[in-house]
Design the sequence.
C-alpha cells in the first residue's frame, strides 16, 4: 500500500507555494575561482558570500536547486547541538565547548539578520519553541537547563509547569516543558528560493541537473568532471550533506543519510487551531526519536515530522506512524485527513556536530544532523570565509573531519535496527517516567 492512499499528496506541502524547478540551461564555464557542489542552503550562502567578495563561482547540483532537504524540512530555526554541554567538554575541552555553545546563539542571530537585511520573503516569525517533557524527572532536568541557558547566554528561556501547559499547547500528553524564545519558524522552500534569487543576482552561476562524477587535482587547482562537461576551479567546496553520493566515496563513508518524514493535515478551523496551538509556537519533545511539529505559516494546518526507518520507495507505514503520533498528541484530530506526506534526507555522523574541514585540498561544509535551517547557511558562510582566508570569522566548527564508519560505504543498512533500538529506549524512558 502506498502512502498516497493515506495522504492526498506525496510531495512536500512547501512546494505548493514555492515549487522547485530547473534553472535555464547554460554552458559550464571553463574555469572559475570556486566550484561549489550542492545548491542547498549551505552551497548557495557560500556562493553568495564568495561572489560578493569578488570571486567567480559556479554551483553544481545533481537535482534542481533546493530539491533535497532545503525545501523538505520543517522550517524550524532550532539550531540544535546534539551533544549536551558535559559531553562537549569531555570530547573537546571546556574552551572549545563554550565556543560551540556560543556559536549556536550567533548562528541564529546571523540567520535572523540575514533574512531581515536581505529582505527575504519566507514567512519568518520568531514564535518561540515549546519543548515537552515526557515525565516529571525530564521536566526538572529541562527546567534547570533552561535556567542555565538564560544565565550563560542571555537566551529568553524558561520552564512551563504542567499546570500552565495548555496556555502554550493544547495537549495533556506532556508533564510540562520549556520555552526558548530565540527559535522561530519559516517557509523552507520560500527561504531557499529567496537565497537562490539573491545568489543569482550577485553573479553566481547555478547549474541544475549537473551531477558531479569526479574531482581531481590539476595544475591550476581542481578538475571537476560532471554529467554535462568539465569545469576547473582554484578551490572546491563540497556542500552535499544528506545527498552525498558515490562521486565522493571518502565523504560518503562518514555521512549517513537518514530519512525524515513530515505529514501535514488538511486545513483546520481557526477555533481548533487556537485550541491546539494557542501561541503558534514551534514544538518538540524529550525523546530520542521525538516528534517536531508546528503550525503552517498561514496558521491553518499542523505539520508533524519524525525519523523514517524506511530506505526505499514510499511505504505507507511511516505515514501511518506519524498520523498515530499526531492523534496521540491531539485526539481531536482523529478524523482529520492528511493532505501531504513526504520525506527528505538528513545527514548524521559519528561526531554529531556540523563541520567545516579539509581533505586532499577540498573544503567541506556538511553534517548538519537534522538542524540545517540554521546550521547550513551559517556553516556555508563560515566555509566561504575560510576560502577567503578570513581568520577573523573562523568557526568553532572548523576542525578535524568526522570519523569514518566501519564497514559502511553509503548504504545505511543498519538504520532500521538503530531506529528500533531508539524506539525501545523511548518506550523504556516513558515507562520509567513519573507521569
Sequence:
Amino acid at each position: 500500500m502506498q502512502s498516497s492512499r493515506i495522504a492526498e499528496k506525496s510531495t512536500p506541502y512547501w512546494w505548493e507555494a514555492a515549487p522547485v524547478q530547473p534553472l535555464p540551461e547554460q554552458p559550464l564555464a571553463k574555469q572559475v575561482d570556486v566550484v561549489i557542489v550542492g545548491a542547498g542552503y549551505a552551497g548557495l550562502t557560500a556562493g553568495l558570500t564568495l561572489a560578493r567578495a569578488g570571486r567567480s563561482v559556479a554551483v553544481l547540483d545533481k537535482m534542481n536547486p533546493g530539491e533535497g532537504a532545503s525545501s523538505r524540512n520543517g522550517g524550524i530555526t532550532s539550531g540544535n547541538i546534539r551533544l549536551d554541554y558535559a559531553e562537549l567538554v569531555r570530547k573537546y575541552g571546556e574552551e572549545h565547548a563554550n565556543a560551540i555553545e556560543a556559536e549556536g546563539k550567533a548562528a541564529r542571530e546571523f540567520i535572523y539578520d540575514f533574512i531581515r537585511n536581505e529582505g527575504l520573503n519566507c514567512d519568518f516569525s520568531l514564535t518561540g519553541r515549546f519543548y515537552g517533557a515526557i515525565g516529571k524527572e525530564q521536566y526538572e532536568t529541562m527546567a534547570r537547563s533552561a535556567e542555565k541557558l538564560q544565565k550563560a547566554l542571555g537566551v529568553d528561556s524558561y520552564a512551563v509547569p504542567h499546570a500552565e501547559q495548555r496556555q502554550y499547547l493544547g495537549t495533556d500528553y506532556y508533564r510540562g516543558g520549556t520555552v526558548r524564545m530565540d527559535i522561530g519558524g519559516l517557509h523552507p522552500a520560500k527561504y531557499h528560493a529567496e537565497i537562490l534569487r539573491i545568489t543569482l543576482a550577485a553573479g553566481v552561476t547555478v547549474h541544475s541537473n549537473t551531477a558531479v562524477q569526479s574531482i581531481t587535482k590539476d595544475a591550476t587547482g581542481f578538475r571537476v568532471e560532471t554529467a554535462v562537461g568539465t569545469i576547473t576551479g582554484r578551490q572546491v567546496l563540497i556542500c552535499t550533506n544528506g545527498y552525498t553520493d558515490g562521486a565522493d566515496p571518502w565523504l560518503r563513508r562518514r555521512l549517513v543519510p537518514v530519512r525524515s518524514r513530515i505529514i501535514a493535515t488538511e486545513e483546520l478551523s481557526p477555533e481548533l487551531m487556537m485550541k491546539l496551538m494557542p501561541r503558534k509556537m514551534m514544538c518538540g519533545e524529550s525523546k530520542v526519536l521525538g516528534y517536531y511539529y508546528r503550525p503552517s505559516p498561514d496558521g491553518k494546518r499542523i505539520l508533524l515530522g519524525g525519523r523514517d526507518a524506511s530506505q526505499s520507495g514510499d511505504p505507507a507505514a511511516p505515514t501511518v506512524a506519524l498520523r498515530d503520533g499526531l492523534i496521540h498528541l491531539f485526539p481531536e484530530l482523529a478524523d482529520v485527513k492528511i493532505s501531504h506526506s513526504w520525506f527528505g534526507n538528513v545527514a548524521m555522523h559519528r561526531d554529531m556536530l556540523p563541520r567545516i574541514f579539509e581533505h586532499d585540498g577540498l573544503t567541506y561544509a556538511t553534517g548538519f544532523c537534522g538542524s540545517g535551517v540554521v546550521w547550513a547557511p551559517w556553516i556555508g558562510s563560515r566555509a566561504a570565509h575560510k576560502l577567503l582566508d578570513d581568520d577573523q570569522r573562523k568557526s568553532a566548527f572548523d576542525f578535524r573531519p568526522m570519523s569514518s564508519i566501519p564497514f559502511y560505504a553509503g548504504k545505511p543498512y543498519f538504520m532500521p535496527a538503530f531506529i528500533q533500538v531508539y524506539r525501545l529506549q523511548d518506550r523504556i524512558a516513558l515507562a520509567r517516567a513519573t507521569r
Observations:
- The mean pLDDT is 94.
- The first strand starts at residue 7 and ends at 9.
